[in-house]
Amino acid sequence: MTAATTPASKPGQTTTLRPRARLAVAAGRLVAWGSRVVRFGTGSVIGGRVSLLIDKNLLSELTASRNVVIVSATNGKTTTTKLLSSALATSRPIVSNWLGANMTPGIVAALAAANATDTAVLEVDERWVDSVLRATQANTVVLLNLSRDQLDRTQEVRKLAEQWRVALATTPPRTLVANADDPLVAWAALVAPNIVWVGTGQEWTADAAGCPACSGRIDFTDAGWACSRCDLQRPLVDVAITDGVIAIDGKTITGELALPGRVNRVNAAFALAAASAMGADLDQAFDGLDDVREVAGRYRVAQLGNTRIRLLLAKNPAGWHEALELLEGPSTPLVIAINARIADGHDPSWLWDVAYERIGQRFVVAIGERRHDLAVRFRYGNINHIVADDLESAIELVRQSPSYDPTMPIDVASNYTAFQDHLEHVGGVL
Amino acid sequence: MTSLPTTRPTVSAVRIVSLYPDLLGTYGDGGNALVLSRRLEWRGIAVEHITVDAGEPVPDSADLYLVGGGEDGPQVQATRELEQSQGLHRAVDNGAVVLAICAGMQILGHRFPDANGTSRTGLGLLDCETLRVDRPRAVGELLTTRAQLATPEGIIELGPLTGFENHAGRTIPGSRSQTLASIEVGEGNGDGTEGVVTGKVVGTYLHGPALARNPLLADALLGWIVGASAITPLDDADIESLRTERIQAARDHELAPRRSWRDILRRS
Ligand SMILES: [Zn+2]
User: Model pTM greater than 0.90?
Assistant: First the structure.
């Protein structure tokens, strides 16, 4: 957990809180410290939990005197939170939970460690939007997309959209920034009073074929989408991305981002739209975006022995759809890793929903606990592949391949827990 | 979708239809069409894969139809459209092969429960019916004993079936149907058996890309179309490695069925 302000430099926060909240914060810190001492992790989540046990309204208290913005989505919420934090940090002090502890305990832990008036940029798990919005009365909410994530709980995508809709109707934010090209998000968003629609040109539509309003069929065209039965259709957009150029508030933003790929232009557009809604100057905000070179290890180029590797994360079919944009160009060998632990979803059937064929003739080494599932997927995709036991032996196989180019980092694309393993392997986040 | 001739010329590609992947296809079901297509191509047999979305006419002259898994709402809509079209019914009458996965199997039976638990009339192409039962969803690895298909030409050995299941409801096979195997690990039909077969219509609770892990089942379906003699051996080394690993995982209860997704939400 990283806060923009460290505990040592933050006087004043606890003195403004009620005694019970102060006790809760102190107890949480003690537990977090204890957890770190016994090397249980950063301790922030467990510390936050203890704090909430003592004062269940702590999140409301900790956000009573700050401006709060919530960012949620299936994909891109961590990156967009980081981008928005960076964009806003050029004009005001901010606190964020951008390392992925995105439920109430993690958020409480991050906020407790910051100044009471710092603007809070909160990444929020899709299922926690309702309770975090209610507790924080956030001024600004950013909703990027909803798609299937871990398969064995997917029936919930539509229910999530419904939850979002109810949350936005019950606790309407001053401004909602929402994806006009995701029918599930658009339907949930429409109840909000003031919406900034972002036209993302989202290509992944497989999870939204059924209309969330009437279960009719949604027809997708180049111009947008519309339900074939009811009047739900793509709203007119306020912020548009065309061929990588972001058009916002009458300006066009053409500058390069440090983060690669179409998907990060989209994330940047959401960050700029939110920053603008929060009163930030656009040019200044865009300068902030450029400071972001990696997000919690994603896109990091790391040294592994005498080889450089580039770490990429793709958690689900929609995420892979974007990641393949980065993988389909080159001809050098690459490594793909798949696990199926709880955080990944126990069932990797979704591998068959990913067009790995886009990798083309590249030689792929399959690793991870479900490397054999990957190998069968590649076999049926006529993809040139081999299976290896771990990252080290995969790198060795890549280096022996005739198409290996030592001047280029080796792409290692992984799903969630495999990515965490690799990040740890090259030295962790900080 | 343009209209198709009702009979297939003698020398032409094997025609595989994916039915309504926009409604039924939430679990990587597209994998089955890919597996079948490749196993034909690798044997030098031409294949034509046709995708029919909801609202489009269902051709009645294809060789093999794939009906995928899906959620409750789309399941009912797919049933309505297939009932109105009757294309799949005519195809089955003409001897077409059908593979129906999970929700697909349920709607092909005589009756199935909708989202509210109300019993709905199914398509009646599989002799079985599915009831709602008051127990948690079956979610986890599914492993059977050695599966078999009894056909007029003899018994086809399918080996143990392995896959993942994720469904509610119990399916009761009728007297005109056979099951594929007995359960070793998991839930299956709910009575210790797995799968329902009526003629050349095959239903299974192995969800999603069921054929990826079960090449003998894929080849049995294809054999019905191109003849058993055309089913020549393939290099299935990758698939054997996966099967060995997953069968062991199921026996170790690595992914024993869990209560429900709500349990996962309680994780830190
Ligand atoms: Zn509609």
Answer: no
